[in-house]
C-alpha cells in the first residue's frame, strides 16, 4: 500500500519549534493526522493480501518506507523529516487499526525535488528513490 501525502509543514519540524508552546504546532499536527488517516482509508481498498495478513497478525512488525521529496533544494536532515511525519504515521496506524509501534523497520530516503513536494509512505513494501521494490 502506497500513500502520497504533502511534504510535512514547516511547523512540524522540531528545529522550527525552538522552545515555542505546543499550541504553535497543534493545528498542523491535527491536519496532518486527519489527512493521513483519510488517505490511508482510501488506500486500504487496494491493500494486497500479504499486507492484509501482516496487519491482521497481532504483534507482527509492519515495514514502512518513507521517501521525502522536498519542495526545494534546501537540505533537511532525515530525523527531522521523520519527526515532522509522526502525526501522519499516527493517522495511518489509526486507519489501519494498529499501534504505530508495529511500524518496524522504518526506512527513510530524501530526494531534492520541486514544488510542492510530497511524502511517499509505503506500508509493507520498500521504496528507494521513488521506485517500488517488492
Q: Choose one word for the global shape.
A: globular
The ordered H/E elements are EHHHEHHEEEE
* Structural class by SSE content: alpha+beta
Distance between the termini: 11 Å
Question: What is the count of β-strands?
Answer: 6
Strand order of the largest sheet: 1-4-2-3
Overall mean pLDDT: 86
Roughly what percent helix? 25-40%
How many DSSP helices? Answer: 5
Strand content: 25-35%
| Main sheet specs | 4 strands, mixed
Question: Spans with pLDDT under 50 lasting ≥5 residues?
Answer: none
Q: Compute the gyration radius: what is it? A: 15 Å
Which properties best describe this structure?
38% helix, alpha+beta, 134 residues, 26% strand, globular, 4-stranded mixed β-sheet, single chain
Give an overview in words.
The chain has 5 helices and 6 strands. Strands 1-4-2-3 form a 4-stranded mixed sheet. The chain has a two-stranded antiparallel sheet with strand order 5-6. The longest helix has 21 residues, at 23-43. A hairpin with a 2-residue loop joins strand 5 (126-128) and strand 6. The mean pLDDT is 86. Helix 2 packs parallel to helix 5 (86-96). Helix content is 38%, strand content 26%. By secondary structure, it is α+β, with helices and mostly antiparallel strands.
Amino acid at each position: 500500500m502506497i500513500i502520497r501525502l504533502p511534504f510535512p509543514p514547516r511547523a512540524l519540524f522540531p528545529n522550527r519549534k525552538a522552545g515555542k508552546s505546543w499550541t504553535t504546532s497543534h493545528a498542523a499536527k491535527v491536519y496532518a493526522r486527519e489527512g493521513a488517516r483519510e488517505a490511508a482509508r482510501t488506500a486500504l481498498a487496494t491493500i494486497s493480501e500479504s499486507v492484509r495478513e501482516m496487519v491482521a497478525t497481532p504483534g507482527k512488525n509492519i515495514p514502512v518506507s518513507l521517501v521525502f521529496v522536498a519542495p526545494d533544494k534546501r537540505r533537511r536532515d532525515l530525523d527531522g523529516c521523520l519527526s515532522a511525519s509522526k502525526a501522519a504515521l499516527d493517522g495511518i496506524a489509526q486507519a489501519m487499526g494498529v499501534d504505530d509501534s508495529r511500524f518496524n523497520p522504518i526506512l527513510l530516503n530524501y530526494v531534492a525535488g520541486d514544488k510542492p513536494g510530497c511524502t511517499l509512505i509505503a506500508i509493507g513494501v520498500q521504496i528507494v528513490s521513488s521506485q517500488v521494490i517488492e
